[in-house]
Amino acid sequence: MSNRYVYGIVESDTVEFETDAVAGAERVYTISHRRLGAVVSDIDTTDPEETDEDAQIHDDVLREIMEYDGGTTIVPMQFGMAFESDRALKNVLRGARPAFRRAMNDIEGKIELGLKLVREEDADVDRETIEADVADRLEPIAAQSVENDLFSDRLVLNRSYLVDEDEREAFDDAIADFEDDHDELMVQYTGPFAPYSFVDVKIGAKQ
Question: Under a CB-based contact definition with an 8 Å cutoff, are residues 133 and 178 in contact?
Fold first, then answer.
């Protein structure tokens, strides 16, 4: 397993622990270049298959990293980034360093939370009214939000929110109050996640 599978980018402080990692690996560790580090595990391919199990493990490892040493900011990578050598990975860290630094500053101390609102089967709802109500309650608390696809006719709203960890309780309370006021909707509130939706750093082709 000489290749490196990448979960995300952190400050160069070493992250290292044993865990169930992608493709059967049992340890994650950091490969550093200057003040940045890629958190990786060993893997025997540069083109890993995205099984449901490994996709879940990828997310679970990111959560562990976020909780590591009292809290660690990580710029998350999507599933499947793997490199054949430490040198290739360090070249990426070198080339994308300004973008990683900006992304890290944007998400430091923040988490991603997801909200889906599903219309009850026989309910008649006005989407614009619901969207306005949600915005009034949540946008003042969240640092940012993005709209996601409405992949079902009954899905009224699907958004991701970037929330400061210090505002998590207030955000939870606002969701609970909204749910109490809307019996016509099923509220699906998920997270915390690594802030995928608020990071747009391309690290190039696998090498």
Answer: yes
Q: What are 6's two structure tokens? A: 């990448």
What pLDDT shows up at residue 1? 52
Q: Where are the domains of the chain?
A: 3-108, 110-193
- Give the span between the Cα atoms of 18 and 25, in whole angstroms: 9
Mean pLDDT over 106-119 rounds to 95
The CA distance from 92 to 143, in Å, is: 29
Q: For the domain bounded by 110-193, which CATH number is listed?
A: 3.30.70.930
- Please state the rounded mean pLDDT for residues 172-186: 97
Rounded Cα distance between 164 and 149, Å, is 24
Are 112 and 197 contacting, i.e. CB atoms less than 8 angstroms apart? yes
- Decide: helix, strand or coil at residue 134: helix
Rounded to an integer, what is the distance from CA 151 to the centroid of its chain? 20
